[in-house]
Amino acid sequence: MANSNLTNARNAKKDEFYTQYHDIEKEVAAYLEYNPDVFKNKTIL
User: What is the pTM of this model?
Assistant: First the structure.
């Protein structure tokens, strides 16, 4: 059933998917834990 919903959305091209802020926050924290200077002198949009 879920696959048919995604297929219908793809065919209609009216469905949009967004990454949740919380997920981005966790990913950035993981990058910073691995290398604290990874975003040094960088602009994040």
Answer: 0.55
